[in-house]
Amino acid sequence: MSNPKSNESPVQSPAYKYFAVEGMSCAACATGVKRILEKQAGIESADIQLANHTARIGYKPNAVNWDSIGQELQSAGFGLVHTENDAHSIATELLQS
User: Fold this and answer.
1) What digits encode the pLDDT tens for the residues 71-91?
2) What is the pLDDT of residue 43?
3) For residues 43 and 58, what is the distance between their CA atoms, to the nearest angstrom?
4) Residue 57's closest CA among 74, 69, 75?
5) Crossing angle for the helix pair 27-38 and 66-75, nearest 10 degrees?
6) First to last CA, the chain
């Protein structure tokens, strides 16, 4: 007798990236960013931190189009900074302003 689960592909844990989010000024903005992100293909979770203007995004590698996601956010008035170093710098700058 074969194990039926042996034919299933293993569940892959999401990878995570951190981004600075420009344009968030209130809780409604943070909620909007979260909703936009979580509707995108390949995104599994989005933890938004309004206080430091960052997002921790859980995603499926090779299933995400970051350019498309950036465009979606931009059309809603937000910006997504793609690199860890840039995210840290911009988040620091936003907190100081």
Assistant:
1) 999 999 999 886 555 555 556
2) 96
3) 6
4) 69
5) 140
6) 66
Interval 59-64 mean pLDDT? 90
pTM of the model: 0.73
**DSSP per-residue letters across 11-41:** PPPPEEEEEEEET--SHHHHHHHHHHHHTST
**pLDDT tens per residue across span 19-34:** 999 999 999 999 999 9
* Assigned token pair, 1: 């007798």
Q: Which two tokens stand for residue 65?
A: 């189009």
Distance between CA 57 and CA 22 in Å, rounded? 15
User: What DSSP designation does 10 have?
Assistant: P
The token pair that represents 26 in the structure block: 């209130």
The maximal CA–CA distance of the chain, rounded, in angstroms, is 66
Nearest to 79 by CA among 27, 25, 40: 25
Q: Which residues, 6+ apart, have CB-to-CB distance to 53 below 8 Å?
A: 20, 21, 22, 24, 90, 91, 94, 95
